[in-house]
Amino acid sequence: MTLEQIKQWVSTRPTLADALGIELTALTNDYLEGRMPVDGRTHQPMGLLHGGASVALAETLGSIGALTKLDPTKQACVGLEINANHIKGVRDGHVIGRATALHVGRSTQVWEIRITHEETGALVCISRITMAVIDLPSGKPQA
Questions:
Q1: What fold does the segment set 3-135 form as a domain?
Q2: Nearest Cα to 57, choosing from 90, 29, 30, 28?
Q3: I need a surface site. Which of 25, 43, 126, 133 has the fewest CB within 10 A?
Q4: Rounded distance between C-alpha atoms, residue 87 and residue 15, angstroms
Q5: Closest to 61 in 3D by CA, of 123, 115, 142
Q6: Domain residue limits, the chain
Q7: What are the tens digits of pLDDT across the range 57-96?
Q8: What is the mean pLDDT of residues 11-27?
Q9: Which Gene Ontology cellular component terms are annotated (predicted)?
Q10: Confidence band (pLDDT; 50, 70, 90) for 20?
Q11: 4, 23, 59, 112: which is the annotated catalytic residue?
């Protein structure tokens, strides 16, 4: 899958990523990258990036990254577990998430997502998601 194919697939339905302003920015054989604004959509009451928004970015990137390692007409990935350590607060600008596969197996995948501040490069959050690979009924692509 190319980045443009993924963007087209993602744009066919409204998602949490849309509400948070998440955009996919890069795809290579090694990683998937995305960008999210730090603004009123993603703030907690004290004006900092909400930890849940960071986790939503991480899960979005890890899930889509996992999909790129499959044939979506035969298999899908669903989240089993996610964790996150929030390292540094951010008040404005954008954060960049980079999802990298740590393990791509037959029945599970494990992805690490590093979220950094776009301007300073400071590590904001590090997350890990475990995905279950499931077989789809014959002839039914992931919806």
A1: Thiol Ester Dehydrase; Chain A (3.10.129)
A2: 90
A3: 25
A4: 27
A5: 115
A6: 3-135
A7: 999 999 999 999 999 899 999 999 999 999 999 999 999 9
A8: 92
A9: cytosol
A10: very high
A11: 59
Residue 128, both tokens: 């890990």
Helices (H), the chain: 3-10, 16-20, 51-67
Q: For the chain, what is the largest distance between any 2 Cα atoms, rounded to a whole number of angstroms?
A: 49
End-to-end Cα, the chain, rounded Å: 16
pTM of the model: 0.93
- 59 in catalytic set: yes
Q: What pLDDT is recorded for position 141?
A: 59
Residues 37-54 as b/e (b if ≥16 CB within 10 A, e otherwise) read bbeeebbeeeebbbeebb
Distance in angstroms (rounded) separating the CA atoms of residues 120 and 100: 21
Q: Is the pLDDT of residue 139 over 60?
A: no
Beta bridge partners of 131: 79, 109
Beta strands in 1-143 (DSSP E): 23-27, 31-37, 75-86, 94-104, 108-117, 123-135
Between 68-72, 93-97, 131-135, 138-142, the lowest mean confidence (pLDDT) is in 138-142
